[in-house]
Amino acid sequence: MGKPAGILGVAWILVKLGWCRLPQGVTWRGVILIGLLAGIGFTMSIFIAMLAFDDPALLAAAKSGVLVGSIVAAAFGLTWGFYAVKPTPESKAADA
Prior knowledge:
Elements: H1 2-17, H2 28-38, H3 43-52, H4 56-84, H5 89-95
Helix pairs in contact: 1-2, 2-4, 3-4
């Protein structure tokens, strides 16, 4: 849960400091969604595991863990996106 917490935390801090603001139509629920979906990325984790483990069993376990973590992140992101993020009137007007 490090990526979601980092994305949400840094965005919140920067907005509170006044260094930036959320774009029009973007809500904090949307920022949470982006954080959750960021957990899907696994290419670098597998690369690091390949450098770290010489034992094929340990490498397989690490790859399995990365894959399961990515699936869990995708499930959380999709669930959050389906239930928590609603289209705004602006996005509905743009679709028409």
